[in-house]
Fold these 2 entries.
Entry 1:
Amino acid sequence: MPHISHKGLELPQSAIRKLVPFADAAKERGVHVYHLNIGQPDIETPAGALEALSVKAHEMAKNHGVLEYSHSAGIPSARRALCNYYHRHGIDVTPNQIIITTGGSEALQMAFTVCLNPGDEIIIPEPYYTNYNTFASLCGAKIVTVPSDIKTGFALPPMDEFEKYITPYTRAIMICNPNNPTGYLYTHEELLKVAGLVKKYDLFLFADEVYREFCYDGNKHFSVMQLEGLERNTILFDSVSKRYSACGARVGCLVTRNSEVYATAMRLAQARLSPPSFGQFFTEAAVDTPQDYFNKVQKEYVARRNVIVEGVNKIPGCFCPMPKGAFYTVIDLPVEDSDHFCQWLLTDFSYNGATVMLAPATGFYVNPELGRHQARITYCLNINDLKAAMKCLEEALKVYPGRLPVAKKAAAKKPAAKKKAPAKKK
Amino acid sequence: MPHISHKGLELPQSAIRKLVPFADAAKERGVHVYHLNIGQPDIETPAGALEALSVKAHEMAKNHGVLEYSHSAGIPSARRALCNYYHRHGIDVTPNQIIITTGGSEALQMAFTVCLNPGDEIIIPEPYYTNYNTFASLCGAKIVTVPSDIKTGFALPPMDEFEKYITPYTRAIMICNPNNPTGYLYTHEELLKVAGLVKKYDLFLFADEVYREFCYDGNKHFSVMQLEGLERNTILFDSVSKRYSACGARVGCLVTRNSEVYATAMRLAQARLSPPSFGQFFTEAAVDTPQDYFNKVQKEYVARRNVIVEGVNKIPGCFCPMPKGAFYTVIDLPVEDSDHFCQWLLTDFSYNGATVMLAPATGFYVNPELGRHQARITYCLNINDLKAAMKCLEEALKVYPGRLPVAKKAAAKKPAAKKKAPAKKK
């Protein structure tokens, strides 16, 4: 048979999905699995936006309508609605600076294609969202990571650390804010530092802000689109579907004031004809969702986060920072190997007929060793389930054979913390 | 500012869109433009499928539902529904041989990425659907064309013509059936010949069959999926949204029995998380649209096609073959330069306050010279508009300054017809 392409063979396998067969087997055995591994919110999709789509489809059916291709950049009124949304968040952009995409994923893919040559490097603080790998790999670009530290809650590493990684191939810095997988919310000051570096080396600044609405404890989100003097450098990826707990709608957007990037991305947009119209009908109504919806959602996520942070930190040898955004956190575990532990939870453990599924953090690092004692937790379940899941985790660590004694764990962590940038670059 | 990528700079501009600003200007002047240039059907979207989506969205709103990510390959019940559809068309596939995509475009992009290395060649009969260029360009592959001839209605060129173009870099043969832009419907015999070549050289066979339901005059569609012994070679691209006149729904699929291609495409599918759910809800209902819907649609398109074929052929110096499928045809025009003529129609001509917009065929050939005297016509307007458009074309050719005398035109065509394969390959 004809061969698969080299790019095809190199496509990374999703780290988050590796354990799915073990979870399925656990369920087959009758064990309940608390899914703390996936970012699928259980929050209600705004009924008003669903109803608006329902009415639109009904009217089209009644009036013998035709569901035509939309504009390749998205329905103009939907783009105007997004502009209004951004304006309310202190971001001033025009409809001709927005391309509506099939989820944030397509926005990422477009921007990487438009901006990156084979061999180009994107600097990202790690741990980072693994799916960036696939889109980088598709254009032959390389993700270069600057380690952030769980002890600081995964704050932005110092700029001189970033600078160590800059080479003639560096083309972009990428920031996910609030962060998946760490839940860290970058401050205005941190973003100003990134801006300085972007200007100094004339780089692209890619920003994934799909969790913009999920900021806690009174903290405000500051967008890269609010950074001055970076109009030609900055490209924003956003997701309407993630924001309004409508992941299946697959509506996102690429936003940039760089007219050359925009025009080039439009050629890609035209080649794929148009973004999905049903999702755009949903979007037009969704962006008018009252603020009260997010107030409730934020309150709920804060309560959930607190269950996780408290639950993890009271387990001897575990540590969970206090994330300020998104619905993720990366925790420290007193285990030799988090991949083994997370698999063992599904294959060998249950407590009161249940177990817990975590995402080993190894998949969120370029160098898996850095995540060897960590796991990502998502808090997309209700409070009671999260409490039960924390109890499972606590009981599991009492009996897990690969558990590290606290002293030994600290020793085991040292090499990773000591790792020097120059060695990493080889 | 940081530079656009080489790939970005090389992205082809859509040939069909080049004239849009001239059409807009004509409309500004109050001239009515008959759009024979775009494949946006005016046929009613099946009301039952729209209504099913409407009900689903309404129930979700009423029940505080969550629109979750679907399976990355598509909702299992939607894939089963597609299997039933294919079974009714003599194509037996399983849900695990289908990946639901965002329109046929994403299916194309996935398959090209999975199968083609930089420098690889795809052989396609020309004229061909221009957007293939973008997806080939994205993976550094090259489209190599075998000219088909308007005199045969653009039938499959002889296999020894194809064979002249096969090199060590040839990785695939691609067939669009029924064809966009020619409307040609490949016969069972022609496809068997292609199959022989695909087997002989162990190539991929890419087939774009999005117009499967649009076959006329009692002709039956024969799918590449019905070719025996090519299970590991064949990849089908399909479009639910195009089939059911719901272009904006953006639902297509990739179908293959090659498990390695499927598994690799699934990695891409997982990286972009899932296809749009609303469109999939529509799809599940749409595939149950009664056959009567297509009978009516076919009857309508046959009537429209006949208006075009008769209208064009009665204009001195023009020629239109008799297409058997899709809603396109490529016609011969007695003009020096169809790009100039199509632009002139918009900038300098009107008849009874109207003009006609055609797609110059130069954009459908690798060597634009081959399309210099041709244009693509789509018949997506109602009969009366099509008749008025034909009258416009007739009147325009009476006064167009770049019109060729019939004898001269025949001479001008000769060099193109004589062009030899070896010269082309340089």
Note: Chain B touches chain A through 85 residues (CB under 8 Å).
Entry 2:
Amino acid sequence: MKKDIHRLMEERKIDVAIVEGPDGMDSTNPAFAYMTGGQHLVGSVIIKRGEKPIVLFRSMERDAAAATGHEAINMDRWPTHEIVQKFPNPLDARVELYKRIIGDLKLKGRIAFYGTGSIGSHFAFLRGLQPGLNGSEIIGEYDRDIFQVARETKDPDEIARLEKHGKETCAVIGEAVEFIRSHKVKSETLVTKDGTPLTIGKAKEFIRLESARRGLVMGEDFIFALGRDGATGHSVGNPDDPIQLGKSIVFDFFPRDANGYFHDVTRTFCFGHAPKEIEKIYHQVMDCFQTVVKQFKVGETTQKYQHMTCDIFEKHGHTTQRSDPKSQSGYFHSLGHGLGLEVHEQPYFSTFGPPRSTLQPGMVFTVEPGLYYPEKGYGVRIEDTYYCDAKGQFHSITPFPQDLVIPMKG
Amino acid sequence: MKKDIHRLMEERKIDVAIVEGPDGMDSTNPAFAYMTGGQHLVGSVIIKRGEKPIVLFRSMERDAAAATGHEAINMDRWPTHEIVQKFPNPLDARVELYKRIIGDLKLKGRIAFYGTGSIGSHFAFLRGLQPGLNGSEIIGEYDRDIFQVARETKDPDEIARLEKHGKETCAVIGEAVEFIRSHKVKSETLVTKDGTPLTIGKAKEFIRLESARRGLVMGEDFIFALGRDGATGHSVGNPDDPIQLGKSIVFDFFPRDANGYFHDVTRTFCFGHAPKEIEKIYHQVMDCFQTVVKQFKVGETTQKYQHMTCDIFEKHGHTTQRSDPKSQSGYFHSLGHGLGLEVHEQPYFSTFGPPRSTLQPGMVFTVEPGLYYPEKGYGVRIEDTYYCDAKGQFHSITPFPQDLVIPMKG
């Protein structure tokens, strides 16, 4: 939670945290969004350990800067126009500007940079900045940085937001299911009013529109994939595929809300009826899902549940990521991932390496066991978003049935 | 254009370009999208100078990797699971993995990194990677990197895509204008069928929905801002403001298409009628717009046109960024910016510092003079997207009238 940031800075001996908010990154700059409340601006957030954050902003975004609630300093305090005349090389000019900011704001000690931006240009910039800072040190945290760890547990406001967003997300799924099952069927293929097949593309169009109507943002394409496409993991689906009775569809949906928070849910559907072999693996996936979520306990490593999932699937004779890390069938991913301002964030449920996270109150993460057989033309994944409340109880915040078979209307 | 990449590598003595495609960045990783054709995958694109690109991918995204058309190498060629067991520190594990990739693919010399990602973790990673590379050097390009310069001029396919997308964007604006002007008016305020005021929020909702219907993506909020909010530059507008006759609205709209290419257009509207003072500055902005676009000529610096704009506005008595870089009224930004896979990219039209770009065939950029008087409660900006064809002729690809006053229907 946000209140942990100063403690984490203390533990890691970080004196100053600078979160960069470059142009064009808004929705993919979670640390910056976290510190600005999702306001759209180009600038930086500077935190001296133990002090209140400062936002550096440009005049055109003064309203957004004010809305962050932090102390806001207009970048025009530093004469960029003079600096770029004096330092014709843009890198030199940027280094000079930051030296002045660091000097004027008395930033000293171990200065860590965060935020999202161009990898190469920031590498050049930070390397160029280091020599001129007598005594201070520029650092980058590689893994589980202070913002990632703070964001790993959500405060009550964030939980309320995520719960509300889960309901909206499920409402879209409900509308999509009703839309599809209302179609007529002609020799096992769903057909629209004009007699043409209902395709994956048309269903996705409906979902996109319904999302927009409810203010949900789909920055990236979502997965709505038929048969074999649902069995590779991340194929988004072929728009031209006609939807047919008894064929499995993997619908993995992860919209953002207006504040930048994600929900993540997957359902696997067969319209009308399901083939026996798909039903069989669906029941194995559901069984795994229910067994695992019952065992969630504060203090246990996330990795324990990934191994539990592998145990269950291996017992049924499936290959897992653990038994064959190269396998492209069976169970080949991890049980889940945290989500919030990123669709994938801490905690992770990794198979290999040392355990990195333990379950804690305030955590929000997905539970998504799946089994995939591309060569047989089907995959099944069931995913809910879970959260752990202050008492250590785990709840799904994805209020939508997990049924495989969706009966057609009439 | 893409064909320039190897020449740029040669000129800059870059032996290998590695474009990183980390998780969660798709729509904000232009260099990676440029090299993968917008396919959604987590991985890297590696270009040895003079050779064809290679894509590193993970199994779950093998379809997307194949669709890039490049040679594709599955990351499971390297035993990540063994590496993370042997190197429990995640940074050490990542460095080890890349050392193996660099060794196996025989990457040597000056190795430059590109792409978008976490600033801090990539700084730590690239710094950690350097020592183990006997003889090779890790570099980052700060400014106008090879991909930015290649992307600064568009090839005919990209132009066709951008022109089509301009038409779709303008179609949404047309629908929005028709929607608004069809409302009834009650004491100067537009009202909906249920008698409540038509607000900025309701108009934006209509625009979002119409965008989704046409497959346009609004990753970020757009500007639809009334009166004073339209005069700060980047305020997105207050959703509760009722739309009133004779009040100016700045509508700055920059959707992406399905391939990640942007359009960018601004119109300033007064519904019903416009006050004399807004009409006056509108005509000054239009006059400036038309004067400047007539002068565009291949080989001239973009900066020349920014100065031309300042000349025109200063002659009318307005403060400009050039006459007072701190001013928050008058003309306080630059004339335009390139656009393509980013909404702001090369070329820029900067006021200060040495000129960086000259106009060239294939360039696509905005032309957006504006005048702003927040203390008087209005701002006017008019923006079209322009392109320069192979013959050096400049054309608007924003087919929508630039009128200020939109008469109400009936």
Note: DSSP finds eleven helices and 19 strands in chain B.
